[in-house]
Amino acid sequence: MTSASAAAHLNIGEAARRADVSAKMVRHYESLGLLPVVSRTDAGYRQYSDKEVHTLRFIKRARSLGFSMPEIAQLLKLWQDKRRPSESVKKIAAHHVADLDQRIAELSAMKRTLQTLVDCCHGDHRPDCPILDELAQDPR
């Protein structure tokens, strides 16, 4: 078997290793339809090609940037469509940036509140604690 044909028929473990994801994630992506159904050996083992490994790397990179699974599905379709308008890709990415900005603002507000509470807590042997008092308050 030549090295080119060996690369074209990878088992799930090797494909996962080359894409730096777990075999469990490969199966998960398949179940979500992010990866196409691959051929199987007579024994029922999945066979992956370099194309699926490349797709797995795309998914992993998109996940590392915080894209949701539905967003990744849209991005994959656009990536595979060589006639796509880049405007469609930019819309998805811009929407994701706006979501990240909102989450960052929410996390910053949480951090400020907690920092204020930490600064108000004496952190000594006494039982009174403004952190616990704040958590116990009725939010209404």
List the helices and strands and how they pair.
Elements: H1 3-8, H2 12-19, H3 23-31, H4 50-64, H5 69-80, H6 86-120, H7 130-136
Helix pairs in contact: 2-4
What does this structure look like?
It is a single chain. The chain is mainly alpha-helical. The chain folds into two domains: about 1-85, Multidrug-efflux Transporter Regulator, Chain: A, Domain 2 (Orthogonal Bundle), CATH 1.10.1660; about 85-140. About 65% of the residues lie in helices and about 0% in strands. It contains seven helices and no strands. The protein has helices at about 5-10, 10-20, 25-30, 50-65, 70-80, 85-120, 130-135. Helix 2 (about 10-20) crosses helix 4 (about 50-65).
Labels describing this entry:
Multidrug-efflux Transporter Regulator, Chain: A, Domain 2; elongated; 0% strand; disordered N terminus; 66% helix; 7 helices; mainly alpha; 140 residues
User: Using DSSP, what is the number of strands?
Assistant: 0
Q: Which CATH C-level class of the largest domain is it? A: Mainly Alpha
Number of domains: 2
The rounded distance between the terminal residues' Cα atoms is: 71 Å
Structural class: mainly alpha
Estimate what percentage of residues fall within beta strands. under 5%
Low-confidence segments: 1-7
User: What is the succession of H and E elements?
Assistant: HHHHHHH
**Helical residue percent?**
55-70%
Q: Overall mean pLDDT score?
A: 92
Per CATH, which architecture of the largest domain? Answer: Orthogonal Bundle
